[in-house]
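Database export, one record per block. Field names are fixed; values are copied verbatim from the stored entry.
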Amino acid sequence: MYLRGFSLGGSTLWRVKTRHFPRKSSRSSSSIATHQSVNKTLTRSVVALQQEILAHRSSPQLDWQYLNDLNGGQLGPSMKTEVPGPNSRLLMKDLGQFHQNSSIAFFIDYEKSQGNFVSDADGNVLLDLFQQIGSLPLGYNHPSLLKAVESPATKLFLATRPALGVTPPMDYIDQLHSTLISVAPSKLHYVQPKMCGTCANENALKTAFIWYRNKERGWKQVQTDSAEMMSAYNNQVGSIMITSSKFLIIISIKLSQEPGIPKLSALSFTGGFHGRSIGCLSVTNSKPIYKLDVPMLNWPRATFPEYKYPLEHYEAENLAEDSRCLEEVEETIYQHLHTAPVAAVIVEPIQSEGGDKHGSPYFFKGLQHLCKKYGAALIVDEVQTGGGGTGKMWAHQHWNLLDPPDIITFAKKMFIGGFYCREGMLPNEPFRIQGTWMGDPSKMFILRAMLEEIKRENLLLLVEETGKVLLSGLKELQVRKLSLKSLE
């Protein structure tokens, strides 16, 4: 396993990328012995970590029995086969007859999984640091979330899912206030629910482009018969008929070009991941396989900081790295002023897919300054980091910005996707930021239960306490093995 960052799962808050065991048709005695050894080692590690957390707890407000209760009394992993085991491999073979399955690690028994521990199809119990790609805020089968699913209101909206953009339910405003608005980042009073992280980022980019053009035209509404509207009509050269009370005018015009389709761009960073639509892939720079064979928008990118560790030993070098990267951002924006102006800058607080790299508050403050200087919207992608996994509800809150970012996107641990934005960002015209469902009321009831659980059990403080223990242990390990950069 490779430690990758942050996820709120039961009571430990991290996220990892699992490295698959080789898929073998049979188990050798050495394989069995190896897995028995791993089982014992992991069990000792989990118990030791729990004892370490208990020994170092600094807050009497925390109910530390909560940790064991959510895990159903499971003290550690219990391995019976290699992973994937024979049952998982058989299911993979069957699924492969009609479904792409090359990314599947193993099959899960979701009914038996509990808290931070996942049970697979072969009866193995694993400490799950992956947590469904970082999307389970409270682990498996949390009683509060299961209770929310059983409510009549949740069942109603599961069976009759409303198109929230046109016919929302009467209690929709109350739903928003008790969920997304209750944890909105400071000064970001507008929220737009969507479906997933890609939906959130795609529509955040669209919102930024629309906002940028609205600024350029002085916030005047575009008329339906304007050159801008006509040039955005379709992708062909053709004839358009414009009628009035006196004239029938036929215009031959090349469509889907300026001024209606402006030459604008969004700046992203090396290592960033923002989704899998064509727009989001155009600002994604983590793994080339995601983009292979797919045409991309030709948008600029800049270098994300690469720090030296331990941070406290390389403060001067890392400050210089921040300054170098900010200079590159400004130079890139400047170079595009007269070709494809940068209307938005999109960045993750912690690059997860990109190698678990983080930027300093100094870097992000400087980035926001450049966005303001050149009139670009700052989009902070909190799809991975939002929801409490860093000890705060939103990772950007660690930066202590004087003003909030322009747009914050979310998904995963928030159960639905969407974005927050400041006043004046959303377009006034209908259907410009739209979709069939525009969120999911059934998931909002589950989100409300999750937020109530976080508050009731003081889980953000638990994240902080657990993080201190983990960080202390990793630093101690780093001292013992000076060349250590990651755990594999």
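Remark 1: The two ends are 6 Å apart (CA to CA).
Remark 2: The first strand starts at residue 2 and ends at 9.
End of record.
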